[in-house]
């Protein structure tokens, strides 16, 4: 089949054309052959054929997708450590990751293989599935730019202004194996298998260039348009409505003029894995639970108000209420958190579960860190939570077709 026919003829079920080179590329990873050298986009996708725009979120634009995109139901965070010091190899990896992002967010897969003697290029578990609003968001940690004063890849001068580890907090109980990383990939989708497929193939494509440091999966309740509830049963995300306009996003989320050019349209992703002590919470009274946040459980209304989105008066709340403390900091952040469950805590027999707190902001020094300090010293929520992992990443602005992620950092 010639390549024009491939483009015209391929449906999602027929999946994408991939050369045998791809299999070789995957097998030899860092040896220099691009793993998805000749992947092409699907002509159409099966489940999304009737209305693909409802099923796909554009990957290209001023900003990366997955930041102010309405939250999908499933999320994975995969944190990578770059293992090569060869800048050209890093560029190859990022080109492959970008091509694969383009392919998978538009509903494609790599070909499962022409050559029975080679492993299939694609792992195959999304062959019959639509794009499911898949988004991929990349960010770079402090150690991508320099490690112990050593300028990695010659780019330390391009390190963004506020990129550093979140300082140690009074009540931190951090596991460093689950924290930080050189590169973060946030993958979100309406179908968990679609999201995991993307993560899995990012990992495969990284062979020879990077290793996985940690991975974390999350979910939210998805009842169309309503604020999701966290595992304490409270609506979580209400206050995002205070800045959800283009001007609001400029003030709160998108990096300022004081940043390197590659941060234009970019932002900072802050991550805190916060364990929630469900057994303790479930034994506490409704009054105690509501006093913890300063909001009512069922309606989500702030104390002294009737409805979820009514204007908050912090004076109506206990001094240690979570929302009162957030207001006291006088800062806004854009939260995009997910719940997680991690099985049983074998030491106690309790459920290991909580919130993957993810926030996007233009200036973590001003917006996030003072708020976090205030909360960690005075928040009633501390009786029921423990912060177990932490990270900060700088997310570059969006891409135009033909560019690859990180290009404006690694080139020019
Ligand atoms: C430092 C930042 C924050 C951390 C860490 C954090 C953890 C955390 N939050 C909840 C539950 C809720 N948070 C709510 C509001 C809220 N939280 C933060 C910041 C952090 N939360 C802010 C800035 C706000 C908005 C405050 C405001 O301006 O009104 C709420 C109320 C509803 C809402 O607005 O979303 C809940 C509920 C948990 C369970 C948690 C850690 C486990
Ligand atoms: Fe909160």
Give an overview of the whole structure.
- 25% of the residues lie in helices and 19% in strands.
- It has 412 residues and is of the alpha+beta class.
- The protein has one domain (74-109, 121-411).
- Strands 7, 8, 9, 10 and 11 form a five-stranded antiparallel sheet that branches.
- A hairpin with a 2-residue loop joins β3 and β4 (150-151).
- α4 packs antiparallel against α6 (192-205).
- It is globular.
- It starts with a helix and ends with a helix.
- The structure holds the ligand C=CC1=C(C)c2cc3[nH]c(cc4nc(cc5[nH]c(cc1n2)c(C)c5CCC(=O)O)C(CCC(=O)O)=C4C)c(C)c3C=C and fe (ii) ion (FE2).
- The site of the ligand C=CC1=C(C)c2cc3[nH]c(cc4nc(cc5[nH]c(cc1n2)c(C)c5CCC(=O)O)C(CCC(=O)O)=C4C)c(C)c3C=C has 27 residues, from β7, α10, β10 and α12.
- It is found in: Cell envelope.
- Its main location: other.
Core attributes:
11 strands; binds fe (ii) ion; alpha+beta; disordered N terminus; 13 helices; binds the ligand C=CC1=C(C)c2cc3[nH]c(cc4nc(cc5[nH]c(cc1n2)c(C)c5CCC(=O)O)C(CCC(=O)O)=C4C)c(C)c3C=C; 412 residues; four-stranded antiparallel beta sheet; globular; five-stranded antiparallel beta sheet
Number of helical regions: 13
- Compute the CA-based radius of gyration: 22 Å
Give the helix/strand class. Answer: alpha+beta
Give a short account of the largest sheet: 5 strands, antiparallel
On the 0-100 scale, what is the average pLDDT? 89
* Regions with little confidence, pLDDT below 50 for 5+ residues: 1-33, 43-48
């Amino acid at each position: 089949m010639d390549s024009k026919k491939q483009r015209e003829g391929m449906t999602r079920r027929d999946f994408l054309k991939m050369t045998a080179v791809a299999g070789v590329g995957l097998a030899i990873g860092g040896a220099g052959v691009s793993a998805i050298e000749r992947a092409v986009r699907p002509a159409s996708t099966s489940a999304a054929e009737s209305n693909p725009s409802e099923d796909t979120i554009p990957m290209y634009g001023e900003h990366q997708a997955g930041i102010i995109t309405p939250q999908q139901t499933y999320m994975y965070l995969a944190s990578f450590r770059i293992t090569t010091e060869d800048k050209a190899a890093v560029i190859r990896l990022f080109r492959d990751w970008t091509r694969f992002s383009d392919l998978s967010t538009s509903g494609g897969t790599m070909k499962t293989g022409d050559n029975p003697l080679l492993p299939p290029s694609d792992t195959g578990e999304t062959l019959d599935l639509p794009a499911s609003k898949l988004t991929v968001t990349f960010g770079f940690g402090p150690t991508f730019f320099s490690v112990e004063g050593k300028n990695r890849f010659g780019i330390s001068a391009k390190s963004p202004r506020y990129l550093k580890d979140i300082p140690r907090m009074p009540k931190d109980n951090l596991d460093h194996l689950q924290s930080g990383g050189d590169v973060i990939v946030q993958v979100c989708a309406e179908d968990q298998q679609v999201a995991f497929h993307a993560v899995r193939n990012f990992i495969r494509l990284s062979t020879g260039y990077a290793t996985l440091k940690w991975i974390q999966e999350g979910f939210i309740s998805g009842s169309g348009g309503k604020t999701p509830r966290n595992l304490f049963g409270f609506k979580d995300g209400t206050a995002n409505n205070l800045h959800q306009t283009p001007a609001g996003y400029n003030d709160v989320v998108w990096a300022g003029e004081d940043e390197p050019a590659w941060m234009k349209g970019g932002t900072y992703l802050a991550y805190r894995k916060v364990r929630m002590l469900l057994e303790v919470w479930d034994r506490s009274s409704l009054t105690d639970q509501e006093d913890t946040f300063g909001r009512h459980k069922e309606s989500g209304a702030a104390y002294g108000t009737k409805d979820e989105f009514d204007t908050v008066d912090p004076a109506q709340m206990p001094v240690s209420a979570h929302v009162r403390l957030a207001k006291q900091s006088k800062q806004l952040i854009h939260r995009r958190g997910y719940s997680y469950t991690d099985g049983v805590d074998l030491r106690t027999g309790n459920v290991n579960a909580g919130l993957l707190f993810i926030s996007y902001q233009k200036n973590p020094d001003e917006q996030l860190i003072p708020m976090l300090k205030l909360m960690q010293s005075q928040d009633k929520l501390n009786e029921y939570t423990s912060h177990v992992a932490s990270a900060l990443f700088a997310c570059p602005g969006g891409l135009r077709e033909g560019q690859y992620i990180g290009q404006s950092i690694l080139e020019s």
